[in-house]
Amino acid sequence: KACCVAVLGTILPFVTGALLTVIYGRPLMPDGVSVGTALAPTSVGIALRLLGEAKVLQEDFGQAIITAAFVDDILSLVLFNVLFSLRGDFQFVPVVVFPILGIVFM
Question: Does residue 42 lie within any of the structural domains?
Fold first, then answer.
C-alpha cells in the first residue's frame, strides 16, 4: 500500500505541475518538467514530527505514511536526476535504471 501511495504521490504532483505549466503557455520541456519535478518531493521531517506529536508513529497507518514519504523522496531524486540530464545527452539506462537499481540493492 505504501509504495502505491508513494508512486501516486510522486506522479500526481509531477503531472499536475507539468500540465499547469503548459496551460499557462510555457513549454513542457524544460519548464513543465522542472515545475513537476519541484512539486514531487515530500517532507519526511514534517511527517515524522507530526506523527510523533500525535503519538501515531507506531501505528500501521503511521508507518505506511513514513514509508510512502521515503519512497516518494527516492523517486523524486530519480526525477531530479532525469531533469538534470536533460541539458545534455539523455540516456535512459545510466540516468534512470542505474539509480533505481542502486536503491533497490542498497
Answer: yes
Tell me if 90 is assigned to some domain: no
Q: Domain for residue 32, yes or no?
A: yes
Using the 8-state DSSP alphabet, how is residue 43 labeled? -
The answer to the question of residue 23 being in a domain is yes
Domain total for the chain?
A: 1
H-only helix segments in the chain: 2-23, 33-39, 44-53, 60-85, 92, 98-104
Q: How far is 26 from 41, CA to CA, in rounded Å?
A: 22
Q: How far is CA 93 from CA 19, 54, 88, in A?
A: 26, 42, 15
Query: Nearest Cα to 10, choosing from 29, 37, 48?
Result: 37
Q: Residue 39: which domain range?
A: 2-74
What is the rounded average pLDDT for all residues in the chain?
87
Task: Give the pTM.
Answer: 0.76
pLDDT, tens digit, for every residue of 96-106? 788 888 777 86
